[in-house]
């Protein structure tokens, strides 16, 4: 039975640079936004906050939805991702925190530096989300209604 993978990503910009992760995927270095899967019982916004912390050691506060994206890798067309991408700001850093398995580093790069490393992009979603952010796409967080949010959830 087909079902899409629900994921989140964060577009975090500071002084013209974007917070990204360098990660190892099947032995190859890839660039991506901090991103990952929504866990059971977790709100979409809370998933973005958690994934960004786990992958970059940065605490963020999401402030808008940049967009919702659907993508299937060409080599695995049976696999579909639905990505909820948020913008936000860094509100803290925990440099002593160990990053998720496979994450080699959190890096800050300009849009031009990111584009120049296109061969390393984990997916076309990386630049699409940044370009949408730069074009001014922002939707209010209350667009998302989570009727199953658990007590204590961040969203």
TrEMBL record:
Enzyme Commission number: 3.6.1.-
Magnesium in keyword set: yes
Known cofactor(s): Mg(2+)
Signal peptide: none
GO-annotated molecular function: hydrolase activity
Keywords: Hydrolase, Magnesium
TM ranges: none
Pfam families reported for this sequence: NUDIX
InterPro entries named among the record's database cross-references: NUDIX_hydrolase-like_dom_sf (IPR015797), NUDIX_hydrolase_dom (IPR000086), NudJ (IPR033713)
Domain Nudix hydrolase: from-to ranges: 1-131
Enzyme class at the top of the EC tree: hydrolase
Gene3D superfamilies: Nucleoside Triphosphate Pyrophosphohydrolase (3.90.79.10)
Superkingdom in the source lineage: Bacteria
Record PANTHER family: NUDIX HYDROLASE 23 (PTHR43222), PHOSPHATASE NUDJ (PTHR43222:SF11)
Subunit note: Monomer.
Protein family per UniProt: Belongs to the Nudix hydrolase family. NudJ subfamily.
Name of this protein: Phosphatase NudJ
């Amino acid at each position: 039975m087909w079902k899409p993978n629900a994921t989140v990503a964060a577009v975090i910009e500071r002084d013209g640079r974007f917070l990204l992760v360098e990660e190892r995927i099947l032995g190859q270095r890839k660039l991506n936004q901090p991103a990952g899967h929504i866990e059971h019982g977790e709100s979409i916004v809370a998933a973005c906050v958690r994934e960004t912390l786990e992958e970059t050691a940065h605490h963020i506060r999401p402030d808008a939805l940049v967009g919702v994206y659907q993508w299937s890798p060409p080599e695995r067309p049976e696999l579909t991702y639905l990505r909820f991408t948020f913008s936000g700001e860094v509100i803290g850093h925990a440099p002593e925190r160990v990053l998720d398995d496979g994450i080699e580093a959190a890096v800050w790069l300009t849009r031009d530096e990111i584009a120049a490393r296109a061969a390393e992009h984990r997916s076309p979603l990386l630049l699409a989300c940044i370009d949408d952010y730069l074009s001014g796409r922002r939707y209010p967080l209350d667009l998302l209604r989570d009727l199953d949010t658990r007590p204590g959830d961040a969203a």
